[in-house]
Amino acid sequence: MLPWKRALRPLAALVLAAALATVPAATAHAAPSSGWNDYSCKPSAAHPRPVVLVHGTLGNSVTNWVSLAPYLKERGYCVFSLDYGQLPGVPVFYGLGPIDKSAEQLSAFVDKVLTATGATKADLVGHSQGGMMPRYYLKFLGGSAKVNALVGIAPSNHGTDLSGLTNLLPYFPGAEDLIKSTTPALADQITNSAFMTKLNAGGDTVPGVHYTVIATKYDEVVTPWRTQYLSGSDVRNVLLQDLCPLDLSEHVAIGIFDRIAYHEVANALDPSHATATTCASAFS
User: Which residues form the signal peptide (predicted)?
Assistant: First the structure.
């Protein structure tokens, strides 16, 4: 092994440890106790589509949604969440495998949810990679026929430069190949990666799906934050601070516990009954 590779491994471990420190303490991957992933749930006339929650990189079907899943359940939705992108020997922290393969896992899960609920379409809500990965499913795997809306919370729609850090990769020969081989999803999310180029070629959206993007200007992971926005005829791009200038949520907080962002999620899922999102939405 080259000396720089030996040095890179502890650095990667340090970065991973720092990232994991941002995950809520309830990292034990247990079955949800708040009523979601209930396959006996039947959508109501008021909320006729099940909601599938798609976690982000290093997340899982529980820790990413300990706040949003109950929030939506309380509002009468049938809510489901999946694990995807598992690497062999890596428990609890998912979303690390090749993103095109993760999209296949999402496709199978949506089919399972639609079969169980009897619904013809689902709505998808995803955080970070989970807000972007479904676009591959919609565009290349026939998902547009089974999905009504995609709501992305801080989604990596056009990749990330990690505040310029990825621009340093060419100065470390073999570094990008190492990332691709060990954590493919991280490599796929680098700006201008082959995956991102394929995903966004020919336009950001597909017909028949309603898109919402909720971003924060304090995002330190998906950068520049404006690259999260989508272009298309049926897209609503929202900046959290335009709704509440006092909201300081960054990349993790906007997905894990920000009820102002959640209010916008609820508006996107039921636009005919949408209400104004303000700072007071944190208490709604």
Answer: 1-30
